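Quick one before lunch.
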Amino acid sequence: MKQDNILLIGAGGQIGAVLTEALRTVYGADHVIATDLKPLENQSGPSEILDALDGAAMEAMVKKWRINQIYHLAAILSATGEKDPMWAWNINMTSLFNVLEIARQRSLNKVYYPSSIAVFGREAAHQNTPQYEVLIPETVYGISKVAGENWANYYYRRYGVDVRSLRYPGIIGHQSMPGGGTTDYAVDIYHYAVQHKPFECFLRADTALPMLYMADAIRGTIELMEAPTNRLSVRTSYNLAGMTFTPDEIAASIRKHKPDFKISYKPDFRQAIADSWPASIDDSAARHDWGWKPDYDLDAMTKDMLEHLAEKYA
Ligand code: NAD
Ligand code: AKB
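Model of the nicotinamide-adenine-dinucleotide complex:
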């Protein structure tokens, strides 16, 4: 078992809850300190309340637990961010600066900072969006991720802080619920299907978006963090792809198991956000540099999601 001490910020969220447990199997339960604004339940290791806007509290926690790696997951996502842009900008940027400054001042080994497909806007190529593409996002969330990626690159080039980052697509998992994103429908839909309820989708039937199964996202994150430094050529954030589908296609995949499943469509403000994002992204840099390869396609994910959620609701 590896003997780094990891601070996970935003560990109560959709990805954080799963990543915490995955990191604990690699580094040992006592070496992964899970933190969030809210108290964390059912923890197999240490946890604390931490507001990522409070730099002094974050530094005290780094000292207390002798932290040498930070995974900074706390953020306000695309849909919630549009309801109060300045609030979202403050949380997303202030928390990142606190992490980067502590990493610089205390010479931490590594920092993980997730970015998103939200960095792209409608000027970017819609299909197979390249790694290096024009970045004109149309949400405050996307703007904060473009800025965050560039600050990550800056701290690496200027101060040698080993910040690593992935542009996640929409992440789908059975373990936790998403928090305020535009891709959230693709998680909710499985919960409705398993409970034999009809699902009303907030995106149009033909809205194609890049998505990734949670198991792949967690494995990819840990693989990136364990890759030798000299293999990494991208210090802003790597494009990461899994699959692409529309609401219509995910419903069809669910119907292979649940033929009576019904979906209807009532697009809301999230449609404009989805329309500004790519349909698919090119992750060849991640494949080339550190061997990224997703395991799950849409049907494999559907089967796994339905099996796990059936157990949960039984
Ligand atoms: P989430 O909204 O589910 O969880 C975020 C967590 O951060 C929550 O538990 C929240 O309580 C916590 N948080 C918010 N403000 C905080 C603060 N001031 N201090 C401490 N904690 C605070 O988000 P997620 O889906 O788990 O996403 C994690 C990261 O991955 C985010 O940076 C997000 O931008 C990125 N990402 C997620 C997806 C996705 O599909 N889930 C896709 C692309 C990128
Ligand atoms: C969101 O929809 O905001 C997130 C993301 C793709 O960053 N899931």
